[in-house]
Specification:
The strands form 3 sheets. Strands 3, 4, 5, 6, 7, 10, 11 and 12 form an 8-stranded mixed sheet that branches. The model has no long low-confidence stretch (mean pLDDT 88). Strand 3, helix 5 and strand 4 form a beta-alpha-beta unit. Helix 1 packs across helix 3, helix 1 packs across helix 4 and helix 2 crosses helix 3. The chain is elongated. It is of the alpha/beta class. Helices cover 39% and strands 25% of the residues. 30% of the residues are buried. It has 3 domains: 69 residues, Winged helix-like DNA-binding domain superfamily/Winged helix DNA-binding domain (Arc Repressor Mutant, subunit A), CATH 1.10.10; 102 residues, 3-Layer(aba) Sandwich (D-Maltodextrin-Binding Protein, domain 2); 101 residues, D-Maltodextrin-Binding Protein, domain 2 (3-Layer(aba) Sandwich), CATH 3.40.190.290.
Length: 294
């Protein structure tokens, strides 16, 4: 037998242990996840490293992290164990029942809770785990198999994705009630020129929607701070500047006044997405079908 026809394989138990450690970045948590002893996990990962003469993890007092080789292997391992999950779903399916776990990534709870309520009603045996972040963060989690489906605020035009458009959402400004605009309901976009503003972080589609409008009409606010979504409200309530939020996410607050842009309204979009190669997984397909049905 020549070398080109030789069947190459990797020890599956060792790969599984590596995958668990890579996912959790902890040998202790990986052992709990696999329901085996930590020494077994350590031995299997060490054996994998020694077999291929490669270092997969860097160990330091600050914790565990993946090497470049480890990162590359983890990407492949995610795909392998996703297929295993699909096989288990096929083997354990009973009639039309859908059971198991669904990891949902979302740009904000307001966009997804009604969907999750309907999903739970239709599939009561499902466990749902929710992760939040801006669109870029959630999109990358989806590509890395860290979430199964996602609600994001942008069409990434990625051929690897199945995407369903959910809606269009107005972006509004909000200020402290004692702000000079505190008694108003609307502003013109040009009034933001020079205004102290609290901006969302890079990767936020709310931020991008407003910036596109500002650039289009050459309006330049004075951005004094960039913070994640949850911190914008408190920064504005502390009087640090005006904030931005999707109208669907604004919660009335006695400290704050919401203002709609009267002339050149910014909008975001929302989409439900999954990886095409994983669409046949029953929990993922069930979620996407529910979204499609409205």
């Amino acid at each position: 037998m020549n070398g080109s026809s030789k069947l190459h394989f990797v020890n599956f138990s060792q790969l599984r242990s590596f995958y668990a450690v890579g996912r959790e970045l902890s040998f202790t948590k990986a052992a709990e996840l696999l329901h085996i002893g930590q020494p077994t996990v350590t031995t299997q990962v060490k054996a994998l490293e020694e077999t291929y003469d490669v270092q997969l993890f860097l160990r330091s007092p600050r914790g565990l992290r993946l090497t470049d080789a480890g990162e590359a292997l983890l990407t492949v391992a995610r795909q392998i164990f996703s297929l295993e999950e699909q096989a288990v779903g096929i083997l354990s399916a009973e009639g039309n029942q859908v059971s198991g776990k669904l990891r949902v990534g979302t740009v904000g709870p307001f966009f997804v809770m009604n969907l999750l309520s309907a999903f739970h009603t239709r599939y009561p045996l499902m466990q749902v785990f929710l992760e939040s972040g801006n669109s870029d963060v959630v999109y990358n989690k989806l590509l890395n198999y860290e979430v199964d489906v996602a609600i994001i605020g942008r069409d990434y035009d990625d051929p690897r994705l199945d995407a369903i458009h959910l809606g269009r959402h107005e972006v509004i400004i909000f200020v402290h009630r004692d702000h000079p605009w505190g008694g108003r309901q609307h502003i013109d976009l040009a009034e933001l020129d020079g205004q102290r503003m609290i901006s969302r972080e890079q990767g936020s589609m709310t931020r991008r929607a407003l910036e596109d409008r500002l650039d289009q009409y050459r309006v330049r606010p004075n951005v004094v701070m960039e913070v994640p979504r949850d911190a914008v409200r408190e920064a504005v309530a502390a009087g640090l500047g005006a904030g931005i939020v999707s109208i669907t996410e604004f919660v009335p607050d006695d400290r704050l006044t919401a203002l709609r842009v009267a002339d050149h309204k910014p909008f975001t979009e929302s989409y439900a997405v999954c990886l095409k190669v994983r669409r046949s997984l029953r929990p993922i397909d069930a979620f996407m079908q529910l979204v499609q049905q409205g």
